[in-house]
Amino acid sequence: MLLPSKDGGYVYTRTMEFTLQMQSQIMILPRGQKVVCTGTDEVIGKGG
Predict the structure, then answer these.
(1) Angle CA 6–29–17, to nearest 5
(2) Which has fewest Cβ within 10 Å: 5, 9, 19, 48?
(3) Are 36 and 44 in contact (CB under 8 A)?
(4) Please, what is the end-to-end C-alpha distance for the chain in angstroms?
(5) Is the pTM of this model over 0.70?
């Protein structure tokens, strides 16, 4: 979603309204921060 602000900018958001429980957790990351994930094959930096 895009929410317009009073100064003419926008706030970018996403919704987490799903009909099934996804066990999701919200993360807020500073701009430019790198996130490295591990996939199901347990190789760091691939998948995830």
Answers:
(1) 70
(2) 19
(3) yes
(4) 24
(5) no
Scanning the structure block, which residue is given the tokens 């807020």? 28
DSSP notation for 1-41: -EEE-TTS-EEE------SS----------TT-----B-TT
pLDDT digits (tens, 9 = 90+) for 2-18: 888 899 999 887 776 66
Amino acid code (one letter) for 41: D
Q: What sign for the dihedral angle of Cα 42, 39, 30, 16?
A: negative
Tokens 């099934």 locate to: 20
Rounded CA gap, 2 and 11, in Å?
A: 6
Question: Given this model, what pLDDT does residue 1 score?
Answer: 76
